[in-house]
Amino acid sequence: MPTSAGSPRSRRAALLEFAVLGLLHDSPLHGYELRKRLTTALGIFRALSYGSLYPCLRGLVERGLIGERTDDTGAGGRRPRITYELTAEGKEHFQDLVAAAGPDAWDDDDFDVRLAFFSRTEAQVRLRILEGRRSRLEERLANIREASTRNRERMDGYTLALQSHGEDFAEREVRWLDELITAERRAALDPGPAAYDDLDHPSAAPSGTPSGTPTDGD
């Protein structure tokens, strides 16, 4: 996800903005509903606090990407709730973001968030991100295997078990990505159901990877 700086904090802030815009793309939401969807559907935001969410929302409002609507029907002395909705500029900005497919989109957290909004991403962009992610994982897998071979005699049983776990996890994700890439290519040749609908096990994503787009039921 492009940012103005390379620090982890700025990367996370950019991902949060992207996710907020994506969730507001379909319908307006209150801050509470936004946080609930972010924390339940996207692992990177599992511990997201209002102290991080509301500055993000204020920044998006100031940039004209989202608007605020106050609900004046608060009962029992409750403060009116603010509903956030995407502006025309926000929709255009979100489309620019989902059209990006650079190397950042292949990283762990970025890929998970991008995958959650694949249904709003063009097919060729989805395929490029999936192929880039697979290449990144294949490189990681090769490094794990090389380190395991080189250092096996110096590792104790626990370290070997951890190494094996990392290798198994990377292998599973590479196989899963192979399935998604095959489905995307098949769908490009024979348009019809969504590519994910053709998979035998669409929810069999490796642990920690979202298996679909956040919905109202999340």
Please tell me about this protein's structure:
GO terms for molecular function: DNA binding. Residues 109-182 form the Transcription regulator PadR C-terminal domain. Residues 120-147 form a coiled coil. Residues 206-218 have a biased composition (Polar residues). The protein has 218 residues and is mostly helical. It has 2 domains: 9-72 and 79-112, Orthogonal Bundle (Arc Repressor Mutant, subunit A), CATH 1.10.10; 122-189. Helix content is 56%, strand content 6%. It has helices spanning 8-24, 31-41, 50-62, 88-98, 108-116, 123-151, 157-189; strands at residues 29-30, 66-70, 82-86. Strands 1-3-2 form a 3-stranded antiparallel β-sheet. Helix 1 crosses helix 3 and helix 6 packs antiparallel against helix 7 (157-189). Residues 3-7 have low confidence and may be disordered.
The total count of strands amounts to: 3
Query: How widely separated are the two ends?
Result: 24 Å
Radius of gyration: 20 Å
Our estimate of the beta-strand percent is: 5-15%
* Topology as a string of helices (H) and strands (E): HEHHEEHHHH
- Overall mean pLDDT score? 82
Number of domains: 2
Structural class, from helix and strand content? mainly alpha
CATH class of the largest domain: Mainly Alpha
**In the CATH hierarchy, what is the architecture of the largest domain at level 2?**
Orthogonal Bundle
Counting DSSP H or I runs of 4 or more residues, the number of helices is 7
Question: What profile does the largest beta sheet have?
Answer: 3 strands, antiparallel
Unreliable segments (pLDDT under 50, ≥5 consecutive)? 3-7
Basic shape: globular
Strand order of the biggest β-sheet: 1-3-2
